[in-house]
Amino acid sequence: MVSKEEIMKIAILSKLFVGEDEIDGLTEDMDKIIAFADTINNASDEGTDFDNINNLSNVLREDEVIPSYDREKILANAKDSDDGCFLVKNIMK
Amino acid sequence: MKYEMVAGFETHVELATNTKIFCSCTTQFGGEPNTHCCPVCIGLPGTLPKLNKKVVEYAIKAGLATNCEIAEISKMDRKNYCYPDLPKAYQISQFDMPLCEHGYVELSNGRKIRLTRIHIEEDAGKLVHSRGNTLVDYNRGGVPLIEIVSEPDIRTIDEAREYVEKLQLIMRYIGVSDCKMQEGSMRCDVNISVRPVGSETLGTRTEIKNMNSINFIAKAMEYEFNRQVDLIESGEKVVQETLRYDDVTNTTSSMRGKEDANDYRYFRDPDLVTINVPRERVEEIKATLPELPAAKLKRYVEELGLPEADAQLLTKYRRIAEYYEEAIQGTKNPKTAANFIIGQIFRHVENEAEKEAFNINVSAENLNALIKLIDSGKIRMNLAKSTLDKMLETGKKPSELLSESDMAGLDENTLNDLCRQAVKSNPNAVNDYKNGKEKAIKSLVGFVMKNSRGKADALTAESKIKELIK
Predict the structure, then answer these.
(1) % of chain B surpassing 90 pLDDT
(2) 8 A C-beta contact, residue B282 and residue B74
(3) Burial, B208: exposed, middle or buried (Cβ in 10 Å; 0-12, 13-18, 19+)?
């Protein structure tokens, strides 16, 4: 069973606001998710190389520069910007 | 009670690749904010990172140069934390399968500082706090780093200093980073605790974050050592926390509260495939490593017969060592070139950056030519020294600065004449010498040197004069 405290801890780490009335519902949901993971754990994994699941390794790039994007494009989705930078709420107290 | 310091380092070194670790944006320092960015390094959904081959190669080089074992299989993991310098809210790093492990760096006192691991990861963006807001520039986001983690093997500030200098030197030698601390391409986190001398258990440690100068590291460690000893002596406890060092007040202060206790929820990055490092590849990379500074120093002392202090000065920068080795090619005495470089050429390269670049007017080839003129007896040391000064000023070859007669040497007859003149013109000195004043001979030799314009050999002249006076 997932505890309310664990839900709150995960919420804080994820910077999510969780209301008092949401905790019970989230606890149940999280229990279901973990139960699902248990189902997977019970499945046979004999002969499966989890470090190389898609049989791919060393997909590498050459160290060659490709021009970067225009700044307008980079900042296009920013909620706010200033001086060519993304602007976010002050994180220093 | 006497206390000892126990310290370990986490050192971030920016790799000198052309492009970022997971995209093809440039890694150039500076540049207008957010102009070295693309959808991958600003973490847009749906983008796919692709690992830079050179990053793997450089990290392996760094591992080999610090006596690490290189993993056969390695992988990338996500380190989750939420902060605006990380656009994805996770940093791609390595958790349990780093590329390099179990190395060491040996200090001059013979102690080995063990390295736990070296792993590759991406750098975060830069935050600027202004007018109640935070501005984010992602140019640095995604620049490749290696993190070199040491065991808590450092016991003194001097050892800490030497450890950082050694790492810097090694990384520069093998060409994986410029390690410019003031530009942030090398940064250290210092874990430090204290314990009574003789105790084997570790005390509670604190971590001083993001130090970018060796002097600040030394000062911060000294402050933190004293602070922890004071706490223990007064019956209080050291709290495990992350600290920031303030170089203006020379104090440390707490950075994060306990509620933020690290919980990075590492898991494998499903976007990036396994890294396999075949043993042949490790051997190939090993073959490209230059002679490392420690080995070079040893060779200069043991094989070339240089004093250790000189050897240290010459091996501290790779370019200077290369220059020196080119200058002594085919010459008789390796000390001559060392003296010229340390005594005369170093006056023209004053700071670290200039020594690093070592762009001087005299090519190694020209210095070599000058030394060969000494070796063949064509010019004497005095003339060579003044010629080198002229070479440093003009950039000319010795053959352009020395006339035929300068290089003709001094024939026996002329030398004999000059010695006779010296005796004739300086009766006082001759008398003094005869009366037992050994030093008086020097002024007679000086006469010969002056009138031969430095071409005479002082020792030969002295013995000839002694003959004449007898």
Answers:
(1) 53
(2) no
(3) buried
Q: Which of chain A's residues have a Cβ under 8 Å away from the Cβ of B20?
A: none
Per-residue pLDDT of A56-80, as tens digits, reads 888 999 999 999 999 999 999 898 9
User: Which residue, among B36, B129, B130, B273, would best test binding to A if mutated, counting the most A CBs under 10 Å from its CB?
Assistant: B273
For residue B42, give the nearest of A60, A74, A87 by CB distance: A74
Place of tokens 């904010």: B33
Res B182 pLDDT > 80: yes
Mean pLDDT in residue range B260-273: 82
pLDDT at B22 over 90: yes
Query: Which has the closest alpha carbon to A52: B167, B390, B97, B81?
Result: B97
Tokens 């919420």 sit at which residue?
Answer: A11
Chain A nearest CA to B8, separation (Å): 28
**Global ipTM:** 0.79
Burial (0-12, 13-18, 19+ Cβ within 10 Å), B261: exposed
Residues of A with CB under 8 A from a CB of B: 9, 12-15, 51-52, 54, 56-66, 68-69, 71, 74-75, 77, 82-92
Tell me the per-residue pLDDT of B298-339, one tens digit each, with 9 for 90 and over.
999 999 999 999 999 899 888 899 999 998 988 888 888 888
Going from the N-terminus, what domains does chain A have, and what CATH number goes with each?
1-43 (1.10.20)
Nearest Cα of chain B lies from the Cα of A18 at a distance, in angstroms, of 17
Helix axes B412-425, B427-434, angle to 10 degrees: 90
Does residue B260 have a pLDDT over 60?
no
- Give dist(CA A7, CA A23) in Å, integer: 7
Instruction: Give yes or no for a contact between B123 and B141, defined as CB atoms under 8 angstroms apart.
Output: yes
B275 at the A interface (CB within 8 A)?
A: yes
Q: Note whether A74 contacts B50, CB cutoff 8 Å.
A: no
Contact criterion met (CB < 8 Å) for A63 and B18? yes
Residues B77-124 pLDDT 10s = 999 888 889 999 999 999 999 999 999 999 989 999 999 999 999 999
Tell whether pTM > 0.90: no
Residues in B touching A58 (Cβ below 8 Å): 273-276
Residue B175, classed as helix, strand or coil, is coil
> How far from B102 is each of A38, B7, B115, B285, B395, CA to CA, in Å?
36, 17, 6, 18, 48
- The upper half-sphere exposure of residue B14, i.e. CA atoms within 13 Å in the direction of its Cβ, equals 24
d(CA A56, CA B394): 59
pLDDT digits (tens, 9 = 90+) for B267-293: 999 999 999 999 999 999 999 999 999
Fold of domain B412-469: Arc Repressor Mutant, subunit A (1.10.10)
User: CB of B371 within 8 Å of any CB in chain A?
Assistant: no
Query: Which residues make Cβ contacts (< 8 Å) with residue B255, sequence separation at least 6?
Result: B209, B241, B242, B243, B244
8 A C-beta contact, residue B290 and residue B276: no
